[in-house]
Amino acid sequence: MKAAAKTLLVPVLALIAALLVGAIVIVFTDPETLRAWASFGRNPGRALSLSWGLVSGAYGALFVGSLGSTRAVSETIVTATPLIFAGLSVALAFRAGLFNIGGEGQILAGAVGAAYIGFAFRELPMIVHLPFALIGGFTLGAAWGFIPGFLKARTGAHEVITTIMLNFIALSIVNFLLKTQTFLRPNRSDPISKIVSESAELPQLLGNQYRVHAGIILALLAAWGLWWLLFRSTLGFEFRSVGTNPNAAKYAGMSVGATYVIVMMMAGGLAGLAGATQILGIRKYMTPGFFGFGFDAIALALLGRSHPAGVVGAAFLFGALRAGALRMQADTSIPIDIIVVIQALVIVFIAAPTLVRALFRIKAERVAEPETFTKSWAS
Amino acid sequence: MSTIAVGAAGGRSEARARATGVAFIALGVLIAWLFGAGSAGDGSAAFGLNGTDQFAELPTLTLPASGTGYLLGFIAMFLGGIQLARGFEGRTLLVLGVVVGCFVFAFLTWAARGSSLNLFGMLQSTLLRSIPLTLGALSGLLCERCGVINIAIEGMMLTAAFMGVIVGSATENLTMGIVGGAGAGALLGGALALLAIRYRVDQIVAGTVLNIFALGMTSYLTARILVDYPDLNSPGTFSPVSIPLLSKIPLLGPLLFRNNIFVFITFALVALVWVGLFRTRWGLRVRAVGEHPKAADTVGINVLRVRYRNVILGGAVAGIAGAYLTLGSVGRFDQNMTAGKGFIALAAMIFGRWNPIGAFGAALVFGFADSLQNKLAILNVPIPSEFLAMAPYLATILVVAGVVGRARPPAADGQPYVKE
User: Does residue B239 share a domain with residue B103?
Assistant: First the structure.
């Protein structure tokens, strides 16, 4: 219990600190409240009550929008689903000492694969079609992850550079594909793909009025599977050995290069599933542009300390923030982008525990330092 | 031991030189085949060379499409042959530039076969599009030469573009807008330095965080403030400045000497950073800190101070790049308007091998690919524009993987320094 409290301490404090800074941003970007603060000397009560009203209104709407009703909970789960996959992808790579910034590209690859199989094979029964589309998404994501893994193993090219570049290459390829006759929806000139057939859709869990779909079950299974792989299997032990000390792993007889390739493929596959479940469960067709989970995924892996359970928890938290922020924007006209700021702050506070320590005046030994992931561009 | 190591390294570099020679020849064959044979019998290409307000008008350059393709292909093959036979040693990069130039020009001749192309307009838009990339790459270079990885160029540019608009509109003074942009960039540079140096956060995590923060904050403030106060989002743009006499030289004058202030700033900064890094004591110290901080510390260089100063300076340069996007180009801020330019700048830095002039060259190549994308529709070219869009990224992967040449980053890049 004590150990659990210890691991949770920094993430929880980081979240609180981020929400506090977020509140300050909200207060000091509201013109009326700012004016009240300017005349703080004459009427301190007004400035304080306006600020309190603003912040409690925003965070209250955030809470109601994420957990306040069945629909809200459904939206939270729906938003968390792809985040779990993407976060697991980054976490797995972190465990093997790799930094997968390529989530966005792998998500696009997986989404394209799932969408294509979804709309191209219309006659298949669901029991074949849906798994086929999911496997297609996983495979394309894995293929996109294979490239940086292979390049790192063979030439030492740093995966951060190659994955960043591959993100934009994937974006261009998708833009191109969406103009081809294979993908383009008939009678449409804007780049929008055909619609996935019903036999490839992920089933709704709570009927048609709620969006929550079976993807969440797959995501939780993937998290459990990854936990088993990492902490109960020989392969996972090798991954973690390579991550902790590649040289020691090499002298113990493990193939560092092969590990890099396998890990990047699995990470790519997981990210691919984020894209696939989003297409098959929510969107039903492809449009140009990034999905935007790739960068959240880095935050999730850091917040979850690269542990599958931690990632799941963090993904639900971010899912709740995202889902609630829509309600907040509608109710209080505070733009949804404040969530992105809060997420960035969470990562800062987690990555720099000394900051949190200073902020909350905690003694040094209670906060564990995070491991450093990257060594250098060159290797 | 050491002789063996040297021998092996020599063998590897020889093999690399040979591979480069083969690559040049292959590219030459490709040029001759695609653009020489590919435009056989299609007539000639006409290139317009004139800007406005010159001493004299240049005649339109008319070239036989097929012959030009063959000629340029043979030049590339010839250079490849020399590279194989005896190598160009230190000038390999220059020769690479010439070969790439041959490819590009042959491509243009082929694309414009049977019609005409305004070469002047093409060059001008190439230069303009390379400006933010060059400045961004200089920013990355200033940081990485002293051992701090900067992947926050994108976020710095975005924040500076935003601040540039606000300050420029509020003061109704565009120059103050540049200062505001550079200041915002420097502030983010300071944040990166603090996280990377003081708190020893993983530098890639720190950079990623700054990118996310910049995107979130500028989008939030745009929706919260700029939408309600559109006056703050209309600073106007810089108008071109002509340098007397020089700007009237045909072709080169309007191209190089009649531009908005950012182009001149970029020229000056490229030269300044190059001279600074390779010809001054400051540069020697920066490079020492980036290659071997412990040794630098031993001889009395304050490693952390050098890093702080450079990263903040780098932030300011990225800030100027961001200010260009709003004050030098479109004149208003839009959410996420950098759209990956910071990452192309990073690519240009790597492609240019952490050298200011190399980075400028790489930025020009990427800028050309970008401006060509918009011309493809009117040209006679069966290439989807998306493939040109991904060319810079693909080229960068080839370079970091060592397929074409080899990019070696500073040895201590990304490693925090702890004084013992």
Answer: no
